[in-house]
Structures are given as C-alpha cells and as structure tokens.
Write the structure tokens for this entry.
Amino acid sequence: MSEAILEGMSEAILEGMSEAILEGMSEAILEGMSEAILEGVSEAILEGVSEAVLAAEEICHTYPGGVLALAGLSLTVPRGCRLAVLGANGCGKTTLFLHLNGSLQPGRGRIVVGGVPAAYDRAALTAWRGRVGLVLQDPDDQLFAATVAEDVSFGPLNLGLSVAEVRARVAEALAMVGIEALAARPTHMLSYGQKRRVTLAGVLAMRPEVILLDEPTAGLDAQGAELLLASLEALNAGGTTLVFSTHDIDFAYGWADRVAVLAGGRCLREGPPGEVLANSGLLAQAGLRRPLMVEIAEAAGLPHGGRDEILAGLADRARR
Amino acid sequence: MLATDRHAWTNRWRFIHPGEKALFVVGLLAADFALPAASVAHQVFAAAFLATVIGAKVPARAFWGVMVVPAGFLLAGLPALAVSVQLEGAGPLLSLSPEGLALAVAVQLRSLAAVACLAFLILTTPIPDLLALARRLGMPPALVELAYLMHRLVFVVLERASAARQAQEARLGYRNFKTSIRSLGLLVGGLFLRSLDRGRRLDTGLAARGYQGDLRVLSAEPELSVKRLALAVLMTVVVVASALVWP
C-alpha cells in the first residue's frame, strides 16, 4: 500500500515539475526569441537600410543670372533623425531646402521622397508638402493671415481637412509651441520671436513627417531659442524627422544626431557630429571652425567623440 | 493709420460680430441721408461718437484723429458749395446767398455725420473682419483675397519703410532739402523693388504650405446676437425719434 502511495506521489510530483519546467523553458525561449526579433527590427530601423525619408540625388540648380547654387548635391535624410545642415553663407542651404520641399525643381538630378522619385504635378506636390513642412527663416515670408489662428489654419485647410479637424489641429499646434494665448492676435503686432513660433505652428498643424527649418535659432534670444528647441525636441521624440540649417556649429554639435557639411553647392560629408565635426581639414574646406567642445577635448587630450563622451571624460578627469 | 489699426484690434467691441456693428452704421447712415440734415446730423454724429468712445472704449483722441483729415477736405469744399456762379447776363457773376450758405452747411453737417459713422466702424472693426463680412455679402472672393493680402503687405512695407528711413537718417540722409529729396527718391524706388521681392518670397512661403491659388483660412466667428442686432435697430429709432422731436 505504502509503495503504491509513494509511487503515485512521486509520479505526480515529477509530472508537476516537468510541466513547470517545460512551461518555464518555453516562456524563456519565447521571450528570448521575441527579444531577438525586436532587436533585429530596431537595428534595421536604426541602420536605416530602406528608411531614407527624403533624399537628394546629384541635384543641380542655377538661379537666373547664372549663379550656380547647387552643383550635384547628394544627401540622404534618415527617418527620425535631427540632421543639421552646416555651411558658410551662400553654400546652398536655403536652396537645398526649397528643393527638398518641392518649391524649386532641380535642373539635373532628382529628389526622392519616401523611396519614390518626386513628381511635380499638383496632386504630387500637395501630398509632398503635407509630408515635408518648410519653415522659412524670415517669418514675414510665410505669415499672411490677419490673426494667428487664421494663419495656422491655412495649411491644414489646403490639405482638404474638415473644419472640425482643422480647428482641433490649430489648437493642438498652438499648444505645442506654447502660444495658445496669442490665437486671436493680429500677426503684424507680434514680436519677432512670437512670429517665428507662429510659422512653426503653421507647419506643425499639417502634421508633416519631416520638418525643414531654415536657421531656426537665428535672431532669437537664448530664452526664445530654448522654447523653440523644447517644442522641436518633443516633436522629434514623437518620431518627426527634423532637418535644420545653421551657422552655429556648437549648437549643431550639441543638438543634432547627424550633420551634413555643405560647400560650393555640394555635400562634403554627412555623418554623426562627433566624427564629422572633428575633421579640421573638412571644416576648413567648408569655411567653418571646429566646435568648442572638440577643441576642449583636444586641449585636454581626450579622444574626439560625441558631446556626452567628452563631458564624461572631463568629469572623470576632474574627479581624479 | 497704425493707431487706427491698433484700436481696431484692441477695443472693447473687437469680438462683437462685424455684422452687428455694420447694421448700426447702416441704420445711422440711412437716418442721416433720409431726414433733413439740420435736424438729424447732430444726433447721428453724437451716436457714432458715443458708441466709439463709451461703447468700444476707444480714446476720443483717436476718434478726432480719424476725423481731422476728412473734415479738412470738407471745409476746403465749403466755399465752392456756398458761392453760386451766374454765367448769363453781363459776364460771370459770383454771389453768396443765404440759401446757398444754408445748403452748404447742411451738406457739411450731413457729410461729417456720415464720416463719423465710418470712423466708428474702422476704429472698432479690423479690416479683415470687414472683408469677411463683405465676402459673406457676396463680394467676389478674388477681390476679398486681394484686399486681405494688401492689408497684410501694407504693414510689412510700412515696417520696411520706417526701418529704411531710420537707416537713411542715421547716415544724414535728411540733413537738408537736397539730401531729403534724394533720400526719399531712393527710399521709394528701393521699396518698390523690395515689395516685388517680398511678394515673390511670400508666394514661395505660401506654396510650401500647399497654396493652390485659394487663400482659405478658418476665421473665429463671433456669435451673431439677436439682442445686439435689435439694439442696433433701436439706436437708429432713437436717433430718428430725437431728430423728429427736437428738429
């Protein structure tokens, strides 16, 4: 009797154990697998194999009067990046942006939007401008409506959205740049910084995948620039790709995750800031100076890396 | 003009439906033209003035500021109205009759009252609101858009003009009569070119936001209040009644 009982018990125990083990194992396997899959996917996204949201391929542009603004420029914009376009005055930054938005058509070469070569008919341009927003440097080139809310409503209405949807988007865009209180104000009674934020809201209300910003911080005081950058950071965290031109190499070094250096209507290099902006020869060729951080790193004898690496290195040095 | 615009955007009645203000003005104008000027013009003028200064809380100075130029033109026209010319008989004959003078004064009063009504309207209602009303009332959209853009560009050009003038002044461009004439010529010529350039750039800026030849914006529409419409009509009735009672 007792034997029988023992046998039964041990069987039961073994069964239970193996079941538990199997379950545990399968869970572990599944978890491991899914992790591996996720990693693979995210890596693919990060590498941007097919994820160029916007690209210029060997584009040339000559302005009337024979000024060659772009001379075979190629540039790829990875999705979700913060790409800084750097270069001296007259290197073709603004012209490039006008091409990336379809406002200008290249004489040679082509623009590729989301993997598809761009077309310039009315319907294609409408769709393109819905996906790629452009914020010009001078807000008076973009603001035309009488009040702030009216101006912001212009873009979404052009997308053919319903009135209710447009109203919601206007409110959302104004909140995103922190100017809800200005909604009923006339555009010609705003300060320069306020105008800049209204132009950004006007583009945000169209919910583009990519925003092109021509000199976003130029002419803004430190606080105004900070407010603008906070809005942009929130957007970027939400997946919007940002491409901005700037002369401020320290700002590009600290804020961008990719930089492109332009000179003479071409893109000399595109890559992570720590790598591209440590290259003195390249920067000299483009008429730029090196970022302060890189010079500090060099003076301190630290390796050139990203801003965070240099800061960590300096902190480490100070502790020792 | 800048002061007028500022009051239009900031007065107490800014968010009252432009149709209500327009009805008030139309009622006053109708009374002004329908009744004998000597009896009604004062009341119409007073109503427009009080509505501007007490109702919309626009400073009285701004009201007089708007009135002064048209009043000057009216005064300049007074002699021409008062004096009558006789061409028959022995040569041209100028004469000043009591009837002629009375007629001239009546026309002046009527016109001043009408100008006061318009002063009320432009001091309390921004131009774009009036344009939106005009569109509602059947003005062709293309004309409305043109006026809308002109209104916007006027301010951009004015800003440029004053900046350019300051820059010229800083370099002694207005030292004497000769340099002033030269500077002003350069300023006007430069402004013309700049305005063309500005228009072209605005076109690019708008195209980047999907402009396809149709400037549509979503205006905040104030509620049309039946109570206020009735009040506007009542004001006209009061003006007419007072004109009839105290001619």
Observations:
- The CA atoms of residues 49 and 78 of chain A lie 9 Å apart.
- The radius of gyration of chain A is 26 Å.
- Residues 40-50 of chain A have pLDDT under 50 and may be disordered.
